[in-house]
Amino acid sequence: MTSVSPEYFLALAGLMFTIGVVGALTRRNAIVIFMFIELMLNAVNLAFVTFSRMHGTVDGQVVVFFVLVVAAAEVVVGLAIIISIFRRRRSANVDDVNLLKW
Amino acid sequence: MNIEVVVFGVSFVVALGSSIAMLFAKNAVHVALFLVAAQVALALTFLLQGAYFIAAVQIIVYAGAIMVLFLFVVMLLGVDRREALIEPLSGQRTIAVGLGALLAAEIVYVAVKGTEFVIGGRGEDALVTINEDPGNVKALARALFSDYLLPFEATSVLLVVAIVGVMVLARRMGHEGFLRETTEDEGSEGAETDAEVPA
Fold first, then answer.
1. 3-state secondary structure of A39
2. Of B50, B70, B97, which has the smallest distance from its Cβ to A31's Cβ?
3. Cα B52 to Cα A3, A86, B1, B44, distances in angstroms
4. pLDDT at position B98
């Protein structure tokens, strides 16, 4: 086990999560937004692994396992949605999908 | 200097640096490649903290399968054109960056100051013992198939739902099938939107 204190890992996780939030808010390409969501999920995984280490149990790692499964399912469905939007609109820009906008 | 500190420093710099590079990369393929770099660096931090199985799964599933799927879709759609720089909401980027900095400050403050609330388990040495005696994979399997059996079964349902949903979403319209009637409506709608949106 590492001698690096868990605070540093948690700080890294927090910073990466924030970068993911900022990227998802500022970018316009739907696929790129999806990648930033993946970055956020990864950062949360790091936080879970760190908590698992601090608690001395593997429960946090089991949660990471579930996050991985859910992320895989989410990516598959999300990319299929993006592809079907692209077929209709010829664009992956989220601002072009404004039919339901008030 | 301790080798673990060096490894952590390298993975910290690579993970954070490639995440920031994701923000500024124009091309979607570059964003995907920076994300792969960040995920590999994160796998290193998992290894450092004794999560060996999760580190392997991170590389295989995330940096391998999921990112290949992303790159496949990027190539399929051919979205290598530069993103539109017009902001529909004025000042959205500035506000997002400002609020993001605030969020980062909050999270880092909590991470540094709030760790004493988390500590309450058996401590770090317990995980070392677990990793040695039953082993990391065995301990994970025991937890997964005993305490977490119901969520595990639920994920199998989730995966089936995802597979069926993707098959419905991604099938090409216009074939003979039960979607015949809706196909014609969608075809006319598509023609309208094509006229509205210049390619």
1. helix
2. B70
3. 17, 39, 24, 10
4. 92
